[in-house]
Amino acid sequence: MYPLLYKDSRYLHRRPIGLMEVVTQKGNDEELRKFYRSWYRPELTSIVVVGDFEKEEMEKRIVATFGSMDNGDHAPEREYYTVPMHDGTLVKIIKDKEITSTSVKIINKFPHREEKTLGDLKRSVVNIIYTYLVNQRLTDLTQQKGAPYMYAQSYATSAAGKTDRYMSLATTKSDQIIEGTKGLMRELLRIKKYGFTQAELDRKKVILHNDFEQMAKEEGKQSSAQIMDAISNHVIYGEENTSIAFKKEFVQKVLKELTLEDVQELVNHYINLSEDNRVIIVTAPENTVTPSEEELLVALRSVADEQISPYVDLDVDEPLMHDLPKGGGIKNETFSAAMGITTIEFTNGASIALKPTDFKGDEIRFSSMREGGYSLASLENFDNASMASVLVSQGGLSKFNALQLERILSGKQVYVAPYINRYNEGVTGFSSNKDFETLLQLTHLIYTKPRKDVDKFEQFIENKKEYNRNALNSPDSYFTDEVNKVMMQNSPRTATLLTPEKLDKINFDEAFAFYQSRYSSAYGTRFFMVGNFNVDSVKPLLTKYLGSLPGKKIPSKYIDHGIRPPKGAHRYDFPRNMVDKSKMLMRFTGKYPESQKARIEMGLLSDILTIRLNQKLREEIGGVYSPYASSTILQRPYSCYRMDIYFTCAPANLDTLVRATLHEIDAMKKGISAENLDKVKKAWLKNRKGSLQTNGYWRRVLEDQWTRGEDEQDFEKFEQQIQDVRAEQLSKLARKYLNRKNHLEFVLSPQH
């Protein structure tokens, strides 16, 4: 793509990573040092420090460290380069074995417009509005049967060389590149000719207004990383860097004054059929039959001659629920003072654990869980059941289809969706305080009024067939899928990428019936809620919407079908990589105790192994870039562990690095250094401290306690259990669990 995007520009020949033939050229050492001295100098450097420190002390340390550096006697002047405009349209058809989807990109180049004044800032606000409106239009079209493309988006972005780009792209079916290209351009020209409707603009004004209201509530709760990013982007790219309070006031003032004419100015700037300064790129899998460059240009020209009709807006002015539930009853309520958690049990067999926090000014995290999942499906119904929640979610809720539902929820800070995993099912979502009742209404409808939309099912299956047909072109995707099959010993219950032939056999009636079998009752379901709320205030709503869910007794235990990883030591080689490198996944498996202490020990062991692998494989041998080990402890379907070791290397070095890895493991069995153990303990304790200030972490704590049967005493012991781990314990752990008895090696190697 580079020759088209950077035509006649220095950027075409000066890529950031450089050229290895220059870097490795014999006798080039001094040239490299000269380059470093020329460009890594104080006047081109900014230092940004964000965090918990004393300002004066930090300034002293910065001056002491960097103050003596100078720019050198002959520091070259920094030049700024441009990307020249060009006549005509540049077209490129790119086909490759590893491309996993077919897409067309239409890129228009413009001189960069800087953002320095409040007028420029207003334009950026209008751009936010415009980008939402155009992409909502493009997305709405994908909801319709017979849509010309599967996915599309359109937006402006800045690029190198004082250039802005207006990007429009569509993902199409492999045999519909021309149709997708024309469909994309047709919608853009519809906007160009008729503009947006007032209703569309008003909806987005509400959304953006609410976004900044929400943002303002979090101003004092930004992380250091967020503040650092804002300052860095200001320094490097010239982006505005103001307080959230100022942004809120400014944006909301702009919204009051904003008109359709303001948006149309951007439409006219971005959307045009001029063939100058335009690039068209088609990317497709290798075996795709693609149109010629001239056919693409002719297709785009032909759209301009079409009689394009005005857009007909969809506006739904109805409440989400006409008939509200009368509510259920509370069977029991308990409170853990140590953890600040209230647990309410409803008479319908459902329950909820509530943890109020003030980590965010206006955020509620919400989920539910019950054992079962598609482990309960018959073998004949497995594929239907494994896709049930996704298929049903496409249809909307109650009497509203997906697009109507989107309109009803427009402007609200709320999301919730069902999921069905192998061993459990439930919902997951979030909301603001203001929209919490809407979240509960959506949850109630997910259980009581799923909507069966056959057209959406058929469209989803057709799109999924296109995606799955090419997904395994990616060597990494293929590798992951094959590892999954081996671990499941090719069981017909393996959740793998379904072939087009298998997707043709998906039965929507059966999938819908399985969904209903799990969501027709909330019996045995535990809900979890963490965030900025008052328990007494939300209790009536919880009783109304969750306590009223159907409570018929249904199976609430998963089925263990006895699927286990292969035993013994095995190597599986998958010669699928398109480049001359190998990826190694070493995996140790086996039964493992299900206790918090045991999980901590295995986690510390994997982190220490990562340190040793970096020291040996990367620093000493120089054969890999970033090797790492990770541990996973599972309870379902049985208590077990996985210790994974990953690295990528040159194929000729693979066996040497494997031997070195096993040598490091053997060394850990003999002893673990106190220094490494202390290092990972400190990292764990620091991460724990930070995590305890986030709603997402606390929701996982509630979920884990419920699924593992742990309580506040386990929670209180966590940090002490980290401190109590001794090096000899971990050596013993390595001797017992990192043995060759159940040791699998998976290699993604180059094609022969």
Automatic annotation (TrEMBL):
Signal peptide, first to last residue: none
Molecular function terms, GO-annotated: metal ion binding
Any single Pfam family the record assigns to this protein: Peptidase_M16_C
InterPro entries with a match to the protein in the record: Metalloenz_LuxS/M16, Peptidase_M16, Peptidase_M16_C
Origin: domain of life: Bacteria
Transmembrane segments: none
Domain Peptidase M16 C-terminal: 30-205, 505-682
The protein, known as: Peptidase M16 inactive domain protein
The organism of origin for this protein: Saccharicrinis fermentans DSM 9555 = JCM 21142
Organism taxonomic ancestry: Bacteria, Pseudomonadati, Bacteroidota, Bacteroidia, Marinilabiliales
